[in-house]
Amino acid sequence: MRIAQVAPLAESVPPKLYGGTERVVATLTDELVQQGHEVTLFASGDSETRATLVAPCREALRLAASADPLAAHLLMIELVSHRAHEFDVVHFHVAPLHFSMARRMTTPHVTTLHGRLDLPDITTLYEEFDDVPLISVSDAQRAPLPRQNWVGTVYHGLPNGELHFSHGPGKYLAFLGRIAREKRVDRAIAIAKACEWPLKIAAKVDPSDVQYFKAEIEPLLDHPLIEFQGEIGESEKSDFLGQASALLFPIDWPEPFGLVMIEAFACGTPVVAFRGGSVDEVIDHGVTGFAVDDLDAAIQATRCVHRLDRRACRDAFERRFTAARMASDYLQLYKQVGASTFEFAD
Amino acid sequence: MRIAQVAPLAESVPPKLYGGTERVVATLTDELVQQGHEVTLFASGDSETRATLVAPCREALRLAASADPLAAHLLMIELVSHRAHEFDVVHFHVAPLHFSMARRMTTPHVTTLHGRLDLPDITTLYEEFDDVPLISVSDAQRAPLPRQNWVGTVYHGLPNGELHFSHGPGKYLAFLGRIAREKRVDRAIAIAKACEWPLKIAAKVDPSDVQYFKAEIEPLLDHPLIEFQGEIGESEKSDFLGQASALLFPIDWPEPFGLVMIEAFACGTPVVAFRGGSVDEVIDHGVTGFAVDDLDAAIQATRCVHRLDRRACRDAFERRFTAARMASDYLQLYKQVGASTFEFAD
C-alpha cells in the first residue's frame, strides 16, 4: 500500500528524548516499510526514518523552542491535502487539527488519538466531527466520546530487538517516566517504603512540574531505600527495567495507553499498576502483573510479584505488543476504511 | 450586505478588559449593524453585540482558563464553513487557523491580520497561502510578507462618542497599555524625568511580564514625578488621556497599529512615539504628535507638545480613525473581493 503517516512536529520521529506519540509513529512507519509498503512520513526535518520524509519544518518544534508551533502544523496539513491523491490511505496522528481538512479529502484516512479525551473543552468539537474515522489506543480511552466514528482499537507496539529479556530475579522496584502529579511517584515511594524494598526512579521533570517536584516529591527522596536517577536514555532502559523485580505504575489519571508497561513486559518485568485508563487492558492480572485500586492492595501485590513468571511477561509482549502486531492491526483498518470509502464513492 | 464577522475567542466581543482585536471587531460589527447591514458575529457566548451572535463556546477562553483554546476555534471555523453560503462576505480575524478552510470556501472572504508578521516561524505557512485575500492594519505591517494577496490596508477606528475631547492644557504625561519589554515604559520614565514633568502610568502587568516588571520597572517607579496606577477600565480612559499633555508611546517593536494612539487623538491629546511599525502612518508629525528615533529627540519633542493644537488631534481622529470610516473602508473591500470572486466564478 501507499501510506502517509502524519506525525506531530513537537518532537522528531523518533524523538531525541521523551515523546510517546512520535516514538509510536517511528516504530509503525519503519515496520510498514519493513513489510514492503511504500510509506511517506510527514514529520520534522531532523527525523530519522526508512520511509520518504516530507518535512514542513527543519527541526522538531519543542527543542527548537518555536514561537509558533501551530504554523508548521497548519502548513503540514495543507501539504498533506495537496498530495493526498498519491496515497491509498493517510494516517493522521495530529488530532484534531486536521479534522476539517480530512473531512473534505477523498483519500481514505484514519486518525489515531494519542491523548486523553475526558476534557470538557473538546466535547463539542468532537460532536461536530462525528464522521471522522478514529482509532483508539485502548478501549478505555473512548469512554468519554462514545459517539465518534470509531473504527478500531490498536494497542501500541515496540520493535522486537530494542529491549532484552532478563531472567531476574529483580533487585529493586522501578519507576520510569515523568514526574507529574497524575503519575503519582509519591505512591511508588510509599509502596517501596512499606515493602522495605529499594526503589529506583528514572524520570524527567518538565519545567512545568519543577515546582511540584521541589515541594512535594524532593522531601520524600531522602531515604536509604529511594534512589532518584533523573532522566535516562533509550539505551539505558533495557538494563533499568530488566534488573527490576517490578515496575510500579501508580497512576491517578485515565492513561490512554502507558508505553512503559509494555517496555517492562519486553524485559520480563511484571507491572503493579493502579487501575485507570488502559491498565486493565494492558495487564493480564495475575500473569503479567497486578491491577489494584488502593495503596494497601498495591503493597500486597508488590510483595507477591516474585511469584509471577517473568517469561510470561515477555510472552505477552511478543504476542500482543510488538511493532509487527501493531502494523498488522493498522493495515487491516487501512483496508477497512479504504473499502468503505470506495463504497461511498459508488 | 449579509456579513459574517469571525472573532478570536480569547476575549469576549467587546473584551471585558484588555483585548485589542476583540475590541476592533466589536466596534466594526456594531457600526455595520448601525449602517443597516445584516451581520452575524461568531464570538464567545459572553459577547455583547447588536449583530446575531453565534457562539462556539459559552465564555471567552482566557478568563475561563480553557485547557484547550484550539478546540473551540476549530469548531468555530467548521461552523462558519457550514453557514458560509448564507453570507455575501465572511470577514475573518483568526488567521492563520482558517486559511485551509477559507481557501476551499466559495463565499467571498477577507482576513484582517491583527498581529506582527515578522516572525520567521510563519513565513513558509504564508508562502503556501499566498492566494488568501488579506487586509493589513497598517502598510508597515505588510513589510515582512510582501508577496501575499493584500487587498487593502484598513486603519482601526473607534466609536465617536466613547472618548471625549478635552481642551487641556494637560497636567502630566501619560503611558497607557501593558507593561512589556517591547512597550518600553522605562523610556517613558526617562523622558518624564528629563523633562521634569509628572508621568502617570496606567498599565496592566500580564503574568508572563511580572518578572520583568519587578526586576526592571518597579525600581524606577520610586520617584516623586512617577505615579503607577495599574490597569484602568474603559470608563476611566477618557479622563486619563484627556487630562494629559501628551501620550508617550516609546515602543521598541513593529507595532501593527497601536490603538492607544488614536484613543489619545480622540481626547485631543498628542502623541510622542518612537518610530516603528505603524507609527509614521498614524501620527501626522508636527500636527498630532512627533515620531522620533531616540531618547534625546523624544525629550526634545515632549518639551514642545504644548505648541501642538489639541483640536487638530481630535480633527485627525474624526477624519481618519472613527468606526464609521473603518466600516466604510471595509465595506469597499467586501465589495471588491465579492466582485473578483464572481469574476472567477464566471
Describe it for me?
2 copies of one chain form a homodimer. Chain A is 37% helix and 18% strand. By secondary structure, chain A is of the alpha/beta class. In chain A, helix 4 links the parallel strand 5 and strand 6. The radius of gyration of chain A is 20 Å and the shape is globular. At the A-B interface, helix 2, helix 3 and helix 4 of A face helix 2, helix 3 and helix 4 of B.
What series of H and E elements makes up the topology of chain A?
EHEEHEHEHEEEHEHEHEHEHEHHH
Arrangement of strands in the largest sheet of chain A: 3-2-1-4-5-6-7
- Quick check: average pLDDT of chain A? 94
Give the overall form of chain A.
globular
Assign a percent range to the helix content of chain A: 25-40%
Number of helix segments of chain A? Answer: 12
Structural class of chain A, please?
A: alpha/beta
Looking at how many chains there are and whether they match, the oligomeric state comes to homodimer
The major sheet of chain A is characterized as: 7 strands, parallel
Low-confidence stretches of chain A: none
The separation of the N and C termini of chain A measures: 21 Å
Strand content of chain A: 15-25%
Largest interface: A-B, 27 and 27 residues
The tally of beta strands of chain A, per DSSP, is 13
Estimated radius of gyration of chain A? 20 Å
